């Protein structure tokens, strides 16, 4: 603290890095989706392109356009609930587009079971001179859970449903999410035996505990054997799919102050990044301490206990006041989670410059206060969407039968007039 003047006014010193956090938070609280810097006209045109299939070309076009714009305008101009997009927005604002793109292609590292690998990285950086941004991803394992029994002649990997195991008379295949086909290796004799042991249903569960833990029928034993064959080769395949993304910002410290951190995130169905900042959850979590925060995150990678997971989701991923909310698909017992991270350094001067440029973009919109500016932005996006939809429908009259027949009638009239001209008056 520095004491100034006879009033003994106390002024708290703030690092440039902490000023970045304050400005980012304040701007998101006030302006929401305008922080992306996307012009309202572009936003409206993009939504028009997405909405064109919803227009019934045989009806009243003007009326339908107005209805479609009214339906989507709120969603179009509200802050995103996409966790991944929120992370992208934060990275662009703090790093700039070029560095954010480089960071995007940086590889993730799996968080160790105790979180020590990330804590070691932080310990090896100077807290008084570095501003760090860490991007986290939480993946869930999504292995195949369905066995399909089919004859050789009926199996076409080009059209077959992916992420399933296929048992043929002489082969056992795994078709992954990308459409890659893997031979799981049993010879023809074993495949034929398994094929004959299994009934005539088209599909079977590969995760039924009654079948796997207490097999009774030949069919149960065959399915259990197929699961064992697959599990022996599981390491060959990548079943992890992204489920949640978020960032934490660690500004430089002043003097001997403890290292602060601020999580930034949106969570689908629960809150936007704007809601997150308004609720003050970033400040609330910063009191936990960075080491404790990392250790709790690491727990997600080693437990499938529903209660343990739910408690962490409530504490870390729900905005204040909605702690009971958590993402159900992350909490399935049979699906382990993987927490991974990557880290980069922030230049606070560049970050403040990026935020200032965003503020200048926002200031181009008229309005005496933030809510007026947001309303102006929303109205411009609605107008742009309306005009672009009208333009698209005018450019492609063949999409509208009513316009098509109008043009045909006009052409026939022109042909009749031409014929009369050639024949002369009657």
Structural class: alpha+beta
Percent helix among the residues? 40-55%
Count of folded domains: 3
Shape label: globular
Rg over alpha carbons: 30 Å
Main sheet record: 5 strands, antiparallel
Overall pLDDT metric: 85
Low-confidence stretches: 1-10, 395-426
Instruction: Give the helices and strands as they follow along the chain.
Output: EEHHHHHEHEEEEEHEHHEEHHHHEHHH
Count up the helices.
16
Please report which band the strand proportion falls in: under 5%, 5-15%, 15-25%, 25-35%, 35-45% or over 45%: 5-15%
Multimeric organization: single chain
| Order of strands across the main sheet | 3-12-4-10-11
Give the termini distance in whole angstroms.
Answer: 104 Å
Number of strands: 12
């Amino acid at each position: 603290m520095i004491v100034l003047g006879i009033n003994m006014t106390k002024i708290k010193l703030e690092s440039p890095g902490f000023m970045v956090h304050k400005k980012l938070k304040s701007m998101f609280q006030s302006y929401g989706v305008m922080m992306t810097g996307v012009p309202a006209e572009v936003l409206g045109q993009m939504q028009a392109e997405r909405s064109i299939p919803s227009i019934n070309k045989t009806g009243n076009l003007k009326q339908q356009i107005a209805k479609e714009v009214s339906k989507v305008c709120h969603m179009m101009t509200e802050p995103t609930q996409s966790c991944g997009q929120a992370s992208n927005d934060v990275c662009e604002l703090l790093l700039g587009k070029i560095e954010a793109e480089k960071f995007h292609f940086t590889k993730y590292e799996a968080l160790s079971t105790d979180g020590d690998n990330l804590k070691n990285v932080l310990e090896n950086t100077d807290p008084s001179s570095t501003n760090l941004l860490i991007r986290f991803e939480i993946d869930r394992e999504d292995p195949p859970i369905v066995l399909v029994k089919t004859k050789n002649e009926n199996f076409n990997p080009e059209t077959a449903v992916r992420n399933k195991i296929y048992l043929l008379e002489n082969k056992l295949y795994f078709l992954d999410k990308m459409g890659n086909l893997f031979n799981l290796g049993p010879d023809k004799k074993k495949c034929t035996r398994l094929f004959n042991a299994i009934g005539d249903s088209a599909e079977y569960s590969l995760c039924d505990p009654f079948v796997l833990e207490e097999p009774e029928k030949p069919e149960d034993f065959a399915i259990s054997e197929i699961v064992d064959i697959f599990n022996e080769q599981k390491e060959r395949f990548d079943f992890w799919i992204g489920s949640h993304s978020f960032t934490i910002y660690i500004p430089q410290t002043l003097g001997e102050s403890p290292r602060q951190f601020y999580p930034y995130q949106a969570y689908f169905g629960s809150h936007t990044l704007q809601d997150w900042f308004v609720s003050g959850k970033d400040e609330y979590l910063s009191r936990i301490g960075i080491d404790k925060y990392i250790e709790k995150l690491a727990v997600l990678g080693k437990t499938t206990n529903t209660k343990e997971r739910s408690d962490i989701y409530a504490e870390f991923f729900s905005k204040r006041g909605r702690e009971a909310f958590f993402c159900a698909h992350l909490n399935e017992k049979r699906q382990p989670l993987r927490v991974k991270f990557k880290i980069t350094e922030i230049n606070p001067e560049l970050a403040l410059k990026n935020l200032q440029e965003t503020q200048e973009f926002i200031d181009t919109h008229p309005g005496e206060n933030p809510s007026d500016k947001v309303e102006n932005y929303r109205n411009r996006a609605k107008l742009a969407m309306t005009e672009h939809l009208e333009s698209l429908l005018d450019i492609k009259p063949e999409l509208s039968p009513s316009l098509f027949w109008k043009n045909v009638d006009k052409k026939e009239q022109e042909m009749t007039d031409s014929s009369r001209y050639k024949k002369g008056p009657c």
